[in-house]
Specification:
The complex is a heterodimer of chains A (about 110) and B (about 110). Chain A has no helices and twelve strands. Chain A has strands at about 5, 10-15, 20, 25, 30-40, 45-50, 55-60, 65-70, 75-80, 85-95, 100-105, 105-110. In chain B, strands 2, 4, 5, 6, 9, 10 and 11 form a seven-stranded mixed sheet that branches. The chains are: A mainly beta (about 110), B mainly beta (about 110).
Chain lengths: ~110, ~110
């Protein structure tokens, strides 16, 4: 079984400042890793994923995450946030031969002008 | 590709009533999942279908919960004799085999049990 710990429940940040959301996972098997974003009253949107290959993955809107196997982490970063990045962010893990995703409790990012 | 569609978006019901939610997956996806999300928490896996076969249902929260996927297309999630503790967002997701378990979610059905 896999599990995820998101170390920060709330992250306030000023516009154009950098942000890092921390995610650690636990698994005895190889994993796939995901970040999803959820805007108020909406479903989850896939932000980025690590399946294999390069440990640094990027999204089209400036987010990046790095898979660190030795530290069992998949932290999400953005060098300069916008007001529109205000949302809840979920880290998720799946075993490579599994079907279900296990989610962290989420991190609420609030971007202030 | 119209994405995963869920209906209704919101459901308000009285305790003891039965409710049914519908999910239409992305058309070429053969896998379908149901999750439940309560306030302040991440989604919690409930059940999984590959085509029409329900391959995992042990996570359904009680025998009041049941899900079907006739003909491997849309799916329904039914809750019988609803309780106030059933109030939550119910999310549906779909994926295709061999896609690295990349799941695409619908907007969810928010259930409020009064």
């Amino acid at each position: 079984a896999q599990s995820v710990t998101q170390l920060d429940s709330q992250v306030p940040v000023f516009e154009e400042a950098p942000v890092e959301l921390r995610c650690n996972y636990s698994s005895s098997v190889s994993v796939y890793l995901f970040w999803y974003v959820q805007y108020p009253n909406q479903g989850l949107q896939l932000l980025l994923k690590y399946l294999s290959g390069s440990t640094l993955v990027e999204s089209i809107n400036g987010f990046e995450a790095e898979f660190n196997k030795s530290q069992t982490s998949f932290h999400l970063r953005k060098p300069s946030v916008h007001i529109s990045d205000t949302a809840e962010y979920f880290c998720a893990v799946s075993g490579t031969n599994d079907y279900k995703l296990s989610f962290g409790a989420g991190t609420t990012v609030t971007v202030r002008a | 590709d119209t994405g995963v569609s869920q209906d209704p978006r919101h459901k308000i019901t009285k305790r003891g009533q039965n409710v049914t939610f519908r999910c239409d997956p992305i058309s070429e996806h053969n896998r379908l999942y149901w999750y439940r999300q309560t306030l302040g928490q991440g989604p919690e896996f409930l059940t999984y279908f590959q085509n029409e076969a329900q391959l995992e249902k042990s996570r359904l929260l009680s025998d009041r919960f049941s899900a079907e996927r006739p003909k491997g297309s849309f799916s329904t999630l039914e809750i019988q004799r609803t309780e106030q503790g059933d109030s939550a967002m119910y999310l549906c997701a779909s994926s295709s085999s061999g896609s690295g378990n990349i799941q695409y979610f619908g907007a969810g059905t928010r259930l409020s049990v009064l």
